Amino acid sequence: MRARLYRxxxxxLARLPDRETLDRVAGLSGDNSSELGRGLAALAGAAAxxxxxxxxxxxxxxxxGVGRGELMPYGSxxxxxxxYEKPLARLRGDMARLGIARAGGVKEPEDHIASLCExxxxxxxxxxxxxxxxxxxxxFFDAHLxxxxxxxxxxxxxxxxxxxYVPVGAIGRVFMEIEATAFEMAA
Length: 187
What we know:
Blueprint: H1 2-14, H2 19-26, H3 35-48, H4 52-64, H5 75-80, H6 86-98, H7 113-125, H8 134-144, H9 149-157, H10 165-186
Helix pairs in contact: 1-7, 2-3, 3-10, 7-8, 8-10, 9-10
């Protein structure tokens, strides 16, 4: 379930959602008894009422923009105020150590939130060899997502240009809180 949530976030943040993605997301269901469940239900509703052209405009306004989008989805930016800084260098070192290669054709720096979510899913499911044990997952999370991803998702949740992405922000924020708490409890 954790890997599926990471992959959902990665899919919605890596590229603008097309009709097929919106239809798949519209089929999600969530239990209203939890904040995460309410976020999933809200995302399904938003996806069902969003056409691909509106999703394209929203994605562009949020993450690309003219010059730059409303949000900068990079760990280096959130941690230092600049892209391509020391957090990215540390991530690249950890990627090499864990056998994670940069995906071909990707132009974004590896510390893009979508890439980091995809890496976490891969560590959980064993995309880079055997599934990583919980200690390795925690180390990666604490180093590369924990210090900033919750704030990014909180910012996304209240972004001026967000509609479809408001529940994505809520899901991501709550999920990052759950992950941090679970890793602390497992220690």
